[in-house]
From TrEMBL:
Pfam families: Nucleotid_trans. This is Nucleotide-diphospho-sugar transferase domain-containing protein. InterPro entries: Nucl-diP-sugar_transferase (IPR005069), Nucleotide-diphossugar_trans (IPR029044). Residues 88-242 form the Nucleotide-diphospho-sugar transferase domain.
């Protein structure tokens, strides 16, 4: 039987709808594989805007009033949501600048491919804790360990905006642990921000999957561009559409996206001011 491969993204609420349209346009510029969109809190009347792109599969995401939490719950359920032998998950605010067939091909050898976070040192990951980053700097690891994360000082924080995986028992276990540790985050909202990297790092440290760390050119967060030292072409740009540089906007520019962007100004909320991001 021929091996299957495809993409997955997450769309929970209208704040990321424009991002998702351009995400689909970028994937279709370079790839023909099916794309699953885990979707919630989007009126079905808007589904045709997504289905304009060929071979798009809409599947329900876990429901929650907080669209950011719904998105996180969808991310920890990616293994079960995938219909493919090889899957590339990408956040919907990502724009491909070229094809990434090499990522699919690397899944012949590895179970998991991903990139390190801009701040890979887990002991300095103040982005995971509530409160002042400066005050939290010396107690990140202590706080994470206190809630039940068996992390050590040399463990790495990965960015979960790109996760490529193949269906194996080891990967299944990884996502099971990811889900379990994310449950700890939701139970300790007094100390932890609603982010998944801590749970993801802990799952990886626990399971130790056969994995490959890709360079930042495969998940380039333009917001932190000054933190990178790269001398290669950027393949995957991670940047929400309103802030995207023009060369990246040109990737997805078409008559359809131009018309959509005009309409978006009339009926979509401003994603930059999404109140759920402050929760």
């Amino acid at each position: 039987m021929k091996e299957t491969r495809g993409f997955i993204t997450i769309l929970t609420g209208l704040y990321s709808f424009q991002d998702c349209i351009h995400f689909l346009a970028a994937i279709r510029k370079f790839h023909h594989e099916p794309i699953i969109v885990l979707i919630d809190q989007v009126p079905p009347i808007l589904y045709p805007f997504l289905k304009v792109f060929k071979n798009v599969i809409l599947k329900p995401a876990p429901k929650h009033e907080n669209t950011v939490l719904a998105s996180r719950l969808a991310k920890v359920s990616l293994y079960n949501a995938s219909e493919f032998d090889k899957t590339i998950f990408l956040d919907s605010d990502i724009c491909l600048l070229t094809d990434i067939n090499d990522v699919f091909e690397s899944l012949n050898e590895f179970d998991l491919l991903l990139t390190e976070d801009v701040q890979p040192d887990i002991s300095k990951a103040t982005n995971l804790l509530r409160g002042s980053q400066q005050e939290n700097l010396d107690k990140v690891l202590q706080t994470l360990q206190s809630v039940g994360f068996p992390l050590q000082e040399n463990d790495i924080q990965y960015n979960s905006g790109l996760i490529a995986f193949r269906k194996t028992e080891e990967t299944k276990k990884l996502f099971s642990e990811f889900q379990r540790y994310f449950g700890i985050i939701t139970e300790h909202q007094d100390k932890l921000l609603l982010r998944d990297q801590g749970a993801f790092a802990t799952a990886i440290a626990t399971v130790k999957p056969k994995m490959k760390v890709l360079p930042p050119t495969y998940n380039f967060l333009s917001k932190w561009k000054d933190a990178y030292k790269i001398d290669q072409e950027i393949k995957v740009l991670h940047c929400t559409y309103p802030y995207r540089p023009q060369y990246a906007k040109n990737i997805t520019r078409s008559l359809y996206t131009r018309i959509f962007d005009k309409l978006a100004q009339l009926f979509l909320p401003d994603q930059v001011t999404n109140p759920w991001r402050q929760k």
